[in-house]
Design brief:
The complex is a heterodimer of chains A (318) and B (503). With 318 residues, chain A is mainly α. Helices cover 75% and strands 1% of the residues of chain A. In chain A, β1 and β2 form a beta hairpin. In chain B, 32% of the residues lie in helices and 26% in strands. Chain B has a six-stranded mixed beta sheet, with helices on both faces. Chain B has a six-stranded mixed beta sheet with strand order 18-21-22-15-23-24, with helices on both faces. In chain B, strands 2-1-4-5 form a four-stranded antiparallel beta sheet, covered by helices on one side. By secondary structure, chain B is an alpha/beta fold. The chains are: A mainly alpha (318), B alpha/beta (503).
C-alpha cells in the first residue's frame, strides 16, 4: 500500500516527466534570448501569439481526433476551401453571413470524414488522405487556382486587430482553447472521447455512443479548421487555395510532442498547447536569426524528432 | 533429487510505488512440475516474466544448469531452453497456425535463401498431433477458438525444445476434457525430464499435477515444499495470510414470489438456436455450458450487443427490443463481461473514470460533471468493495486483475440496474476476491437486483445460485432448482447427456 507521501512523490515525478517539453520550451526561450536582442521583447511575443493562434485552433481539433485513436490529415484542405468560399461570398452577402457559411462548410466537410470513420468504420488515415486531396482540388476548381482578394477592408480586425491591447485572433484562440479544456475535463463528452480512444469495445460496453463521439470530433476539427482559415484570410486579406498545406502535420507533431498518445486515450490539451508554442517559438527564432527558409523546415523536423525521442526515453509513452 | 535445473536466488523487483518481488528464491528440478501459488498481485506473473527474460530483476541472480545467467530477453531465454506460455495469448491473429508456432524460428526452414512452407506445415502438424488436436497448420489464428489458441501457444513453446516450460494459468479457458489432455501432455513432458513451472488459481489442479509448490504473498515466498505434504486449506491460509474457509456457503433464503423480470421466447442468434428462458425477480440464475454452447451469445443478446434474428424478449411483461448496450442500460440491464482487459477496462484511464463511465450523465448538472459528487461516490465504492488502489486517480492498469474486476463490478453498483449479467465473474481471480465477488452478488439480491451468472465454473454456480440452467449446442437443455441439483447432472447436461434432468 502506498502512503500519502509516496502518492505525492509519484505526482511530482509525473509532472516532471510530462514537463520535459516545458523544460525544452524554457531552454529555447533562454537560448533565443541570448542569441537575439529582438527576441525577448513584448512586441515579439505578441507576434508569436498571433502566429500561433490559428495553429492552436487546429491543434485543439487534432488533439481531440487523436485522443479517440484516429487521425485527420485533411484539415489543411478544409481550411483552404472554407476560406476561399468565405472570401468569394463576402462582397455579395456580407462578412458575417459569409463567415458563417464558411464555418458550416468546414463543419460539414469534417462531419463527412466523421461519418466515414464512425459509421462506415473506415480507417481514418485513409479517409482523410482521400478528402485532403479531393477538398484541395475543390479549392482550386472553385478559384481556378487564383487567390480571391475580395475581402472587405474591415475584416482585417479578425486577423490583425486589437482589443484592449490584445490581438483579436489570440483572444479568440485562447478563449476557445479554455472552453475545450473545460469540455474535456468537466463534461461526459470529454471523458467519452478518452474512453473511446483507450478501449472502444469497453466504451461500447459502458453505453457510450462511440459513433457519435467519432463523428463529433471530426466535425469539431472541420469547424475549428475553417475558423483558423478565416483568421488566416483576415491576416492576408485574401482567400488563397494553396494555403495550409502543412498545418495538419504541424498540428499532429505539436499534439504528439505534447504527450498525446497516437494510439488514443491519453494526453491533455495543455500538453498540445505547449507543443504548438514550442514549434511557434522555433519558427520565430529561426526568422529572427535570419536562417534561410529552406533550412527552417529541416530544423523543425529535427526538433520534432528529438522531442519525441526524449519523451520515449523518459518512458512517457509506452 | 538431482541438482536444480534452474535456480532463482534473491530476486527483487520494484515498480513505481510497489515492491513486486522481495528476495524471492526458487529451485526448479528436471522432470518435475513446480506449482507457483499466490493471490492476485502476489508477484507470480512478475517472477515468471523475469525468468522468461521479459523483465529484468533489480537484484538477485538466476542460475541455469548451475551457471549464473543473465537472461537478456525472451529470445535469449528461449535459446537456452526457457519458454513461457503467457496467460493472455501473444499471437499474431492474422497469421496462420504454422507461422505463429514457428514465429522467430523460421530460420531452420530456409533452404537456399527460401522459406520452405511445406516443411513448416509438416513440422507444425507433428507438434500439434501429440496435443490431440486437429488444427490445420494453414488456418488463420483469428479463426481459432480460445482453447485452440492456447494449444498453439503450447506447441510454440514445444517447438523450442525447452527444458523449462512456464505455464501461466493454462487451464483458465479450457474445458474439462481439454484440461485432461493438457495434463497428459504435461506428464509426457515430465518423462522427457522437462521442468515445468505451473501457475493456477485452481488449487485442485495443483494436487493433481504438481510435485513441488511455492507460495508467494505480497512479493515474498511464504512457503515451499512438496505438494504431497500440504493440504488445500493450508495453501489457502498461506496465500491469503488468514484463515478462510473456501467459498463460504452462501446462505439463500427461498423466496416465494416468482415474478418474471425478463422472459426470452424462442430466441435465435448466431450460436443460439432456440432459447426460451424466464428470469425471475430476485433470483441468482446460473447459466453454464461448454465453450460454444451459446451461453456467451446469450449474454450478448441480453445486453444488446447482438440482435437475435428470431424470438421475443419481454421485460416486466412488455415486449422490448434490446438494440444496443446503451438501450439495455436504459432498461436497467448491466453486463460485466468476460475478457476484462478487452471488453471492460480503460487501461490508461484513472480508476474514477473507469468506475463511473457508464453513469457519468447522472453526475452532471447542466451538462457539467459535478466532480466533488463523483469523487465522493467513487471513494465510497472503493471502500465498500475494498478495492486496493493507491488512489482513485491512478490508471486502472496499475491494479491487480482482481481489483480491476471489482472496478468493473462497481460500475453497475453505481448505476443501479435491476438485472446484472455476470460473465465468468471469477475467471483468473484468486480465492479471496472470488469470495468477495460472490458476497457482492448475494448482497445485490438482498437489494432486489436480479442476477444472472454465466460461468464455466460449475462449482461456484452450485454454491451461489438459486437456479442453474445448462446450455448445449445453442439450446437450454436442463434447468435445476437449488434443492435437486448435483454437479454430475449439470456437467452431464453440459456435454449433451440429459437423461438426469432435474426439476
Amino acid at each position: 500500500m502506498l502512503t500519502d507521501s509516496k502518492v505525492m512523490q509519484k505526482k511530482v515525478s509525473y509532472i516532471f516527466r510530462k514537463g520535459g517539453i516545458v523544460i525544452a520550451l524554457i531552454a529555447l526561450i533562454i537560448f533565443l534570448g541570448i542569441k537575439s536582442s529582438a527576441f525577448l521583447t513584448l512586441g515579439n511575443f505578441a507576434n508569436i501569439a498571433v502566429q500561433v493562434s490559428s495553429d492552436l485552433l487546429i491543434v485543439i481539433g487534432t488533439a481531440l481526433v487523436i485522443m479517440t485513436g484516429n487521425i485527420d490529415v485533411s484539415i489543411g484542405s478544409i481550411l483552404a476551401f472554407s476560406s476561399v468560399v468565405a472570401a468569394s461570398l463576402m462582397p455579395r452577402i456580407g462578412c458575417f453571413p459569409a463567415s458563417l457559411v464558411a464555418l458550416v462548410v468546414g463543419a460539414v466537410l469534417g462531419m463527412g470524414n466523421g461519418l466515414a470513420v464512425g459509421l462506415l468504420k473506415l480507417d481514418s488515415f485513409v479517409v482523410t488522405l482521400a478528402s485532403m486531396v479531393a477538398i484541395r482540388a475543390l479549392a482550386y476548381i472553385y478559384t481556378k487556382g487564383y487567390p480571391v482578394s475580395t475581402v472587405p477592408e474591415g475584416y482585417s480586425v479578425l486577423g490583425t486587430g486589437h482589443v484592449g491591447g490584445l490581438p483579436v485572433p489570440t483572444i479568440l484562440a485562447a478563449g476557445i482553447f479554455l472552453l475545450f479544456v473545460f469540455i474535456m475535463r468537466y463534461t461526459p463528452f470529454g471523458r467519452h472521447v478518452y474512453a473511446t480512444g483507450d478501449n472502444e469495445v469497453a466504451a461500447i460496453h459502458s453505453g457510450i455512443n462511440v459513433k457519435f463521439v467519432k463523428i463529433a470530433v471530426f466535425t469539431l476539427n472541420g469547424l475549428l479548421a475553417s475558423l483558423a482559415g478565416l483568421i488566416l484570410m483576415a491576416r492576408l486579406m485574401s482567400g488563397i487555395p494553396t494555403i495550409g498545406g502543412d498545418v495538419a502535420f504541424t498540428a499532429i507533431a505539436a499534439v504528439v510532442m505534447g504527450g498525446v498518445s497516437l494510439s488514443g486515450g491519453r494526453g491533455s490539451l495543455w500538453g498540445a498547447l505547449i507543443g504548438i508554442l514550442l514549434l511557434g517559438t522555433i519558427n520565430n527564432g529561426l526568422n529572427l536569426m535570419r536562417i534561410q527558409a529552406f533550412w527552417q523546415g529541416f530544423v523543425k523536423g529535427v526538433v520534432i524528432f528529438l522531442a519525441i525521442l526524449i519523451d520515449k526515453m523518459r518512458g512517457n509513452s509506452r | 533429487m538431482s541438482i536444480p535445473l534452474l535456480e532463482v536466488v534473491g530476486i527483487t523487483k520494484n515498480f513505481p510505488g510497489v515492491r513486486a518481488l522481495n528476495n524471492v528464491s526458487l529451485s526448479i528440478y528436471p522432470g518435475q512440475v513446480h506449482a507457483l501459488v499466490g493471490a492476485n498481485g502476489a508477484g507470480k506473473s512478475t517472477l515468471v516474466k523475469i525468468i522468461a527474460g521479459i523483465m529484468r530483476p533489480d537484484s538477485g541472480v538466476i542460475r541455469f544448469q548451475g551457471n549464473k545467467t543473465a537472461i537478456r530477453n525472451p529470445a535469449h531465454a528461449r535459446s537456452i531452453g526457457i519458454s513461457l506460455v503467457p496467460q493472455i495469448p501473444r499471437v499474431c491473429r492474422n497469421m496462420t497456425v504454422a507461422e505463429n508456432v514457428f514465429l522467430g524460428g523460421e530460420k531452420k526452414f530456409v533452404r537456399h535463401g527460401f522459406l520452405r512452407w511445406r516443411d513448416l506445415s509438416v513440422e507444425c502438424s507433428k507438434l500439434l498431433k501429440p496435443l490431440g488436436v486437429q488444427i490445420a497448420p494453414g488456418k488463420l489464428v483469428k479463426d481459432l477458438s480460445v482453447p485452440e489458441i492456447e494449444l498453439v501457444e503450447i506447441a510454440r513453446a514445444l517447438s523450442f525444445k525447452s527444458s523449462v516450460l512456464i505455464l501461466d494459468e493454462p487451464t483458465a479457458a479450457l474445458t474439462a476434457a481439454e484440461k485432461e489432455r493438457l495434463f497428459t501432455i504435461i506428464d509426457t513432458l515430465k518423462k522427457q525430464s522437462t521442468a515445468i513451472i505451473y501457475i493456477s488459481h485452481r488449487l485442485e489442479e495443483i494436487f493433481e499435477i504438481a510435485d513441488q509448490y511455492t507460495v508467494l504473498r505480497d512479493g515474498e515466498v511464504v512457503s515451499s515444499g512438496q505438494v504431497s505434504k500440504v493440504t488445500k486449506d493450508a495453501l489457502i491460509t498461506m496465500m491469503t495470510g488468514k484463515q478462510l474457509s473456501i467459498i463460504k456457503h452462501v446462505v439463500i433464503e427461498e423466496q416465494e414470489q416468482t415474478r418474471p423480470v425478463l422472459e426470452l421466447r424462442h430466441i435465435a442468434a448466431p450460436g443460439v438456436k432456440d432459447v426460451s428462458l424466464t428470469i425471475n425477480r430476485g433470483e441468482i440464475l446460473g447459466i453454464t455450458g461448454l465453450v460454444g454452447s451459446g451461453k456467451s451469445t446469450l449474454a450478448k443478446v441480453l445486453f444488446g450487443l447482438l440482435k437475435p434474428h428470431a424470438g421475443e424478449i419481454y421485460l416486466d411483461g412488455s415486449r422490448v427490443t434490446i438494440k444496443s448496450p446503451r438501450y439495455a442500460m436504459k432498461l436497467g440491464i448491466g453486463l460485466i463481461p468476460a475478457e476484462r482487459l478487452e471488453r471492460a477496462i480503460f487501461p490508461h484511464r484513472p480508476v474514477i473514470e473507469n468506475l463511473l463511465m457508464p453513469s457519468l450523465e447522472t453526475f452532471t448538472k447542466f451538462g457539467v460533471i459535478n466532480e466533488k459528487k463523483a469523487r465522493t461516490t467513487c471513494t465510497a465504492m472503493v471502500k465498500q468493495l475494498s478495492i486496493k488502489t493507491p488512489s482513485i486517480f491512478v490508471p486502472v492498469m496499475n491494479l491487480s486483475g482482481g481489483n480491476q474486476q471489482k472496478v468493473a463490478i462497481a460500475r453497475w453498483l453505481v448505476s443501479k440496474p435491476r438485472l446484472i449479467v455476470f460473465e465468468e465473474p471469477t475467471q483468473g481471480i484468486d480465492v479471496e476476491v472470488k469470495q468477495e465477488v460472490w458476497n457482492i452478488i448475494e448482497d445485490l439480491r438482498t437489494r432486489d437486483v436480479t442476477v444472472v451468472v454465466i460461468s464455466s465454473d460449475v462449482d461456484e454456480l452450485l454454491l451461489g445460485c438459486t437456479r442453474i440452467v445448462t446450455m448445449f449446442d445453442g439450446n437450454v437443455v436442463a434447468s435445476y432448482s437449488r434443492e435437486n441439483v448435483t454437479k454430475e447432472a449439470v456437467v452431464a447436461a453440459a456435454v449433451g447427456d440429459i437423461t438426469t434432468t432435474g426439476g
